[in-house]
Amino acid sequence: MFKRLWISLFALLLPISSCIPCAASAYDAHPKLVVILVIDQFREDYLERYRSDFKGNGFNMFLDHGAYFPDCYYDYANLVTAAGHSAIATGAYTDGNGIASNEWWDLARNTQRPITSVEDPRYSIVGLPATGQNPAREGASPRNLLATTIGDEVRLATKGESKLFGISLKDRAAILTAGHTANGAFWIDPQTGAFVSSTYYMPSLPDWATTFNQSDRAAQARTAAGVSASASFFSTVGPTDAAIQYELDFAQALIQGENLGGGNVTDVLTISISSTDILGHRVGPDSPDQQQLVDQLDGNLDQFFTWLDHNVPGGLQNVWLVLTADHGVAPVPATAQQLGIPAATIPMKPLIAALNKNMNDRFSPGQDLEYLLPDQDLPYIALNVPTFERAGINELEGERAIQNSIPAAIASLDPSANVPDDSVQPSAKRVAPTPRVFRTFTRLQLASLQPGLPPTEFGRLMAHSYSANGGWYVMLVPDAYQVPGSGKGATHFSPYSYDRHVPLGFYGSVFTAETFRGRVQPVDIAATLAALLGVNQPSASIGHILTQAIHPEVEVKPRSESLRRKKHEDTSRPRRAATPATKTAPPATSRPSRKTSAPAAATPSATQSAPASPGQRP
Ligand SMILES: [Zn+2]
Question: Quick one: residue 20, left, alpha or beta (phi over 0 = left, psi -120 to 50 = alpha)?
């Protein structure tokens, strides 16, 4: 009662200009533009480890001037690029949006190889360089994405007046993050670096994109990365900051070319920075090379945000920025072993061969049938359904047979793959870690069509990883820090914290400048943006609205009141010009620090930013 009275008095006393955060609404372009930044393979602890390196307003835009959530963890168990970008965009996990993997076997569509999450032969690629050596390639679309995205919902709510675009070096990260209704998604031709799209979106590239591709930007990036004109752009320029700058230059060309932020409704742009993932797989999260790239990315973002401030109408006061990542990463197994972690490598081909042998011994003695499909990766092990069906084995029996065989198959793997490095103490004195199975779940168990999922948080996390795609499968969860592959480099795929921990930050006039401790999830992004913009949450959204991140003046204003006032203003007098909410969103060039800009009414749970931890630096 007293609280409500206080709020009413507070509202009466507020001058109109300080109510500006209340005006957040997709329908009248508050903000003009939402930019969702996804950093591919970017564990949140990078921002803690390297914080003292950050200069200007790159990551500090979120850490010092935005609502920042350091304890953001995905709540599912298949932490890969396509699934992560889909979760961010749809506010749902795999069981809601359908995207489980980067690629999977779908024998109805292709019996020769796994299909990718976005390939679509009904379309073709547009924008490929006319070298005469490029046959028209199969196109791509979000056909496998079973839910709408936050961008889709803004487009639906504005009857298509909003513009929606996605950018990445990777097709899946551009397509799945933007959504079904995107005006365009752009990614690169891996060889040349030229930005391309698909006829799903457009018959040909827009002029501004053609102009970009015909400029010397790709050549400049090659020069900056020190690679030759004939090398694959993706694999040689890709892991460098030259590729980050190249992507952000393309984003600037898109914003100008499409006049994003120049309309009467809110536009949405998703940008996935791929370079951190391309390098991270090679060197791992603890490499000085990865630290250097993170620091360079900080500078790239600072420049990009400054550019937005100067080029979007009204500057950054009319832009909301979101920062997150699609997944983290495990340390390189040998690096973790040196410290005593029972990290191990699981070679997939021998594992699949051992499982096939077990199935033949049991169901077709003396034969060498293929009960499992080739080219497998964890966490899903795909069964070759026709082989089981010819043997008269149904899904329940087949998946259980594989599930029961996995521990013995793992135990049969060559232990020499995980012999510790004798040159490093104390590993030479320790017994080599061996791969072990933590849990396995059949597709029927993940779908709760068979018992097996525990009624715990872990069980829910696994249920979020259910996918109807790909026929029969068994999900394999090895012990923590144990990864598929050859032992070279690093990877991500598991339900463990290092794969699930990502940053989550908001910047914009409606967000408070505080750090919030407490578990949140990347699926909360879509729910929070939908609430603030006044649109529906995406169709499968399970996220929560992060109300603590929303400026108190936005929270205390009932929506109906602000709408009534707006209607009254529209009919009785000219609209009052939007006055900047200078308390939370000063221009980037004169932005005060968090300590001076944080609202006085900070909640008890809010803490100041975590101090840098230089002692943790590798
Ligand atoms: Zn990724």
Answer: alpha
Ligand 1 centroid distance, CA of 80 (Å): 6
Q: 30 C-alpha vs ligand 1 centroid, how far in Å?
A: 31
User: Under a CB-based contact definition with an 8 Å cutoff, are residues 327 and 74 in contact?
Assistant: yes
Could you state, in order of their start, the residue ranges of all structural domains in the chain? 2-332+499-606, 341-488
Beta bridge partners of 186: 167
Cα of 551 from ligand 1 centre, angstroms: 32
Give 81 or 433, the one with higher predicted confidence.
81
Ligand 1 mean position, distance from CA 37 (Å): 13
Residue 7 has pLDDT above 90, yes or no: no
CB atoms within 10 A of CB 474: 27
Neighbours of 199 (CB within 10 A): 17
Question: How far apart are alpha carbons 102 and 117 in whole angstroms?
Answer: 5
- Ligand 1 center to 338 CA (angstroms): 26
Q: Among residues 59, 75, 49, which one has the least CA distance to residue 519?
A: 75
Ligand 1 center from residue 278 Cα (angstroms): 9
CA of 85 to the centre of ligand 1 (A): 8
Q: Which amino acid, one-letter code, is at 52?
A: S
CATH of 341-488, one of 3.40.1190.10, 3.30.1360.150, 3.40.50.2300, 3.75.10.10: 3.30.1360.150
Spell out the long-range contacts of 370-375 with Cβ–Cβ below 8 A and sequence spacing 24 or more. Answer: 371/398, 371/402, 372/402, 373/105, 373/114, 375/113, 375/114
pLDDT above 50 for 579: no
- Where does the pLDDT of residue 604 fall: very low under 50, low under 70, confident under 90, or very high at 90 and above? very low
Superfamily designation of domain 2-332+499-606:
Alkaline Phosphatase, subunit A (3.40.720.10)
For residue 15, the one-letter residue type is: P
The 3-state DSSP class for residue 70 equals: strand
- The band of 426, judged by pLDDT with boundaries at 50, 70 and 90, is low
Structure tokens at 182: 């995107």
Distance 402 CA to ligand 1 centre (A): 28
Ligand 1 mean position to 86 CA, how many Å?
11
C-alpha of residue 35 to centroid of ligand 1, in Å: 18
pLDDT of residue 486: 84
Q: List Cα–Cα distances, 509 to 305, 317, 322, 355, in angstroms.
A: 15, 6, 13, 56
CA of residue 164 to ligand 1 center, whole Å: 21
pLDDT in tens, 362-397: 999 999 999 999 988 999 999 999 999 999 999 999
| Farthest-apart Cα atoms in the chain, separation | 88
CA of residue 469 to ligand 1 center, whole Å: 20
- Ligand 1 centre to CA of 444 (Å) is 27
Region 297-314: what's the mean pLDDT?
98
How many CB atoms neighbour CB 355 within 10 A? 24
Residues 6+ apart with CB under 8 A from 60: 54
